[in-house]
């Protein structure tokens, strides 16, 4: 299963994804976060919330492209979902493959060894940012939005971030409930 | 052998300053500027800026070498493509190692600049930046 | 972890106080550089990591659509804070501007030191700093466009009518391709951002200018965009004083 996902994502990345240098992406995201901090008066809780909301909107739209490109069917288990998100989703959009850890039917964690959003970022030294800002919080929103589109309501949040001085960057995803099947995804 | 190093932004504002002595020849890194010089150092460097602005349009190199002197002290300059000036006030001639020093500072500066929370022309207060500059000074000066 | 981070942090420059002489750091620096390096990496903290990274390593790619989704959200957010298209474009321009400043330094550094060591000036043919208008524009046309978008800009022209005006044309701006904002504004919005990047580069290289983006669709090139660059008079004066005979 894992192997075929890897093959799929390698093939996708090589042949079907239009690529661009990540630096413009990194710089643009950085510009956004910095501006948000200024606009919201360095209220990091609000910045986190804003980033999550933006990510959520992105997640809702990104899923369409995901299914169009991958033709993957429904995941049967939450474990499968974790694998697909990490090996195909992240690979396809960010060209990184986070490690999946702590998986069971109700939750999983993604450990990012590489984070294109946070290259060359140093958090401000104001005593608050290290404790309150989740710089890459847009990813939280993307996961929530994307998984909602496949009928999975989840809670996602960062547990640790190397920008804060932690050893790893870890994103936890917890299943809240499976939403009622209104329209099966992928079928008309 | 003592050094006064300053990074000057585009509004003639210092964004970083350091006084350091040499570690070579069993020096301990303490600068030995006489008190009068200590007060004058920023002014000497500041007036040298005018010369830099003249020279930089004639010479498209980043390292401008020694551009001014003052009672046995020399001022060497390096201008980045974004017009941040690295100025070094020194009392010994050491063109090549100063050049290497400036090049590494340039690398350090760009890394600092890339962080979204650092705004151009802002003072660089970061402790780790300061530490790195001191290490570079120890290595080259 | 926190105690080692304190060591890594050091004191830092305080502009209110001025230059620090070595003082208390002497003991720490007197130990060998390698042991300090070990301490830096042991802390594993944010403070050490950005300076340890290599600016010249192999480039990382991501999908273009990620950039477009992000940009779409940015436009929506800027739009929500603006009254009217002018303000929106101005906000996007500002976001691009700070990127331009950073990108100029980054790209120049890479170009100048791509060969590994900086060789003596006579041997290296890479220009170090641009001092002429045409040079900086060509730098933007090729190095900057290539670095950001993976391709060179399509045309660089000087205006026939105005001495201080130049134009850079991009037949298919990358970000415009997939953007999903109101159709009337889509090209202009992305372009205002890129115009900001160009303006940031020019201003910080001391070629002060105003840069604006204009849509010039034509058959086969519906997204063609022209960036109009109007240099300040003093830049033109300086150029003619120094370089024209």
From TrEMBL, chain A:
<dbReference type="GO" id="GO:0005783">
    <property type="term" value="C:endoplasmic reticulum"/>
</dbReference>
<keyword id="KW-0931">ER-Golgi transport</keyword>
<dbReference type="GO" id="GO:0005794">
    <property type="term" value="C:Golgi apparatus"/>
</dbReference>
<keyword id="KW-0813">Transport</keyword>
<protein>
    <recommendedName>
        <fullName>Trafficking protein particle complex subunit BET3</fullName>
    </recommendedName>
</protein>
<dbReference type="InterPro" id="IPR016721">
    <property type="entry name" value="Bet3"/>
</dbReference>
<comment type="similarity">
    <text>Belongs to the TRAPP small subunits family. BET3 subfamily.</text>
</comment>
<dbReference type="InterPro" id="IPR024096">
    <property type="entry name" value="NO_sig/Golgi_transp_ligand-bd"/>
</dbReference>
<keyword id="KW-0333">Golgi apparatus</keyword>
<dbReference type="GO" id="GO:0048193">
    <property type="term" value="P:Golgi vesicle transport"/>
</dbReference>
<dbReference type="Pfam" id="PF04051">
    <property type="entry name" value="TRAPP"/>
</dbReference>
<dbReference type="InterPro" id="IPR007194">
    <property type="entry name" value="TRAPP_component"/>
</dbReference>
<dbReference type="GO" id="GO:0030008">
    <property type="term" value="C:TRAPP complex"/>
</dbReference>
<keyword id="KW-0256">Endoplasmic reticulum</keyword>
<dbReference type="GO" id="GO:0016236">
    <property type="term" value="P:macroautophagy"/>
</dbReference>
UniProtKB/TrEMBL annotation, chain B:
<dbReference type="InterPro" id="IPR006722">
    <property type="entry name" value="Sedlin"/>
</dbReference>
<dbReference type="GO" id="GO:0006888">
    <property type="term" value="P:endoplasmic reticulum to Golgi vesicle-mediated transport"/>
</dbReference>
<dbReference type="InterPro" id="IPR011012">
    <property type="entry name" value="Longin-like_dom_sf"/>
</dbReference>
<dbReference type="Pfam" id="PF04628">
    <property type="entry name" value="Sedlin_N"/>
</dbReference>
<dbReference type="GO" id="GO:0005737">
    <property type="term" value="C:cytoplasm"/>
</dbReference>
<protein>
    <recommendedName>
        <fullName>Trafficking protein particle complex subunit</fullName>
    </recommendedName>
</protein>
UniProtKB/TrEMBL annotation, chain C:
<protein>
    <recommendedName>
        <fullName>Trafficking protein particle complex subunit</fullName>
    </recommendedName>
</protein>
<dbReference type="InterPro" id="IPR024096">
    <property type="entry name" value="NO_sig/Golgi_transp_ligand-bd"/>
</dbReference>
<dbReference type="Pfam" id="PF04051">
    <property type="entry name" value="TRAPP"/>
</dbReference>
<dbReference type="GO" id="GO:0006888">
    <property type="term" value="P:endoplasmic reticulum to Golgi vesicle-mediated transport"/>
</dbReference>
<comment type="function">
    <text>Plays a key role in the late stages of endoplasmic reticulum to Golgi traffic.</text>
</comment>
<dbReference type="InterPro" id="IPR016696">
    <property type="entry name" value="TRAPP-I_su5"/>
</dbReference>
<keyword id="KW-0931">ER-Golgi transport</keyword>
<dbReference type="GO" id="GO:1990070">
    <property type="term" value="C:TRAPPI protein complex"/>
</dbReference>
<keyword id="KW-0256">Endoplasmic reticulum</keyword>
<dbReference type="GO" id="GO:0005783">
    <property type="term" value="C:endoplasmic reticulum"/>
</dbReference>
<keyword id="KW-0333">Golgi apparatus</keyword>
<comment type="similarity">
    <text>Belongs to the TRAPP small subunits family. BET3 subfamily.</text>
</comment>
<comment type="subunit">
    <text>Part of the multisubunit TRAPP (transport protein particle) complex.</text>
</comment>
<dbReference type="GO" id="GO:1990071">
    <property type="term" value="C:TRAPPII protein complex"/>
</dbReference>
<keyword id="KW-0813">Transport</keyword>
């Amino acid at each position: 299963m894992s192997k075929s996902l890897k093959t799929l994502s390698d093939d996708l990345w090589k042949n079907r994804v239009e690529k661009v240098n990540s630096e413009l992406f990194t710089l643009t995201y950085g510009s956004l976060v910095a501006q948000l901090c200024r606009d919201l008066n360095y209220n990091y809780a609000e910045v986190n919330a804003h980033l999550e909301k933006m990510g959520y909107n992105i997640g809702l739209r990104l899923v369409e492209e995901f299914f169009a490109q991958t033709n993957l069917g429904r995941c049967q288990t939450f474990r499968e979902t974790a694998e697909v998100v990490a090996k195909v989703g992240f690979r396809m959009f960010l060209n990184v493959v986070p490690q999946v850890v702590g998986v069971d039917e109700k939750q999983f964690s993604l450990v990012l060894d590489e984070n294109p959003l946070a290259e060359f970022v140093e958090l401000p030294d104001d005593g608050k940012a290290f404790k309150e800002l989740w710089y890459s919080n847009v990813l939280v929103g993307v996961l929530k939005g994307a998984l909602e589109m496949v009928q999975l309501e989840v809670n996602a949040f960062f547990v640790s971030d190397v920008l804060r001085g932690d050893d790893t960057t870890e994103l936890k995803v917890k299943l809240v409930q499976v939403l009622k099947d209104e329209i099966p995804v992928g079928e008309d | 052998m003592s050094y006064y190093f300053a990074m000057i932004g585009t509004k003639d504002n210092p964004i970083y300053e350091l006084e350091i002595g040499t570690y070579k020849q069993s020096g301990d890194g303490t600068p030995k500027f006489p008190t009068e010089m200590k007060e004058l150092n920023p002014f000497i460097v500041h007036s040298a800026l005018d010369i830099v602005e003249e020279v930089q349009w004639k010479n498209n190199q980043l390292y401008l070498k020694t551009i001014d002197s003052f009672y046995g002290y020399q001022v060497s300059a390096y201008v980045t493509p974004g017009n941040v000036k690295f100025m070094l006030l020194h009392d010994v001639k050491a063109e090549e190692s100063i050049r290497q020093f400036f090049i590494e500072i340039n690398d350090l500066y760009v890394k600092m600049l890339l962080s979204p929370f650092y705004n151009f022309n802002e003072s660089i207060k970061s402790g780790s930046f300061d530490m790195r500059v001191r290490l570079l000074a120890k290595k080259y000066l | 972890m926190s105690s080692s981070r304190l060591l890594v942090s050091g004191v830092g420059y305080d502009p209110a106080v001025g230059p620090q002489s070595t003082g208390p750091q002497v003991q720490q620096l007197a130990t060998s550089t390698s042991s300090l390096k070990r301490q830096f990496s042991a802390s594993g903290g944010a403070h050490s990591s950005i300076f340890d990274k290599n600016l010249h390593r192999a480039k990382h790619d991501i999908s273009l659509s990620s950039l477009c989704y992000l940009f779409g959200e940015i436009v929506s957010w800027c739009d929500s804070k603006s009254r009217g298209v002018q303000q929106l474009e101005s906000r996007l321009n500002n976001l691009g501007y700070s990127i331009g400043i950073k990108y100029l330094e980054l790209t120049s550094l890479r170009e100048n030191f791509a060969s590994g060591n900086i060789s003596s000036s006579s041997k290296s043919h890479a220009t170090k700093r641009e001092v002429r208008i045409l040079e900086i524009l060509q730098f933007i046309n090729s190095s900057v466009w290539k670095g950001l978008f993976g391709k060179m800009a399509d045309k660089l022209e000087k205006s026939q009518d105005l001495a201080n005006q130049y134009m850079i044309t991009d037949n298919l701006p990358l970000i415009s391709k997939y953007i999903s904002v109101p159709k009337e504004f889509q090209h202009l919005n992305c372009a205002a951002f890129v115009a900001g990047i160009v303006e940031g580069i020019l201003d910080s290289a001391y070629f002060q200018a105003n840069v604006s983006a204009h849509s010039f669709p034509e058959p086969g090139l519906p997204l063609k965009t022209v960036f109009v660059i109007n240099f300040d008079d003093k830049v033109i004066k300086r150029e003619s004083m120094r370089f024209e005979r």
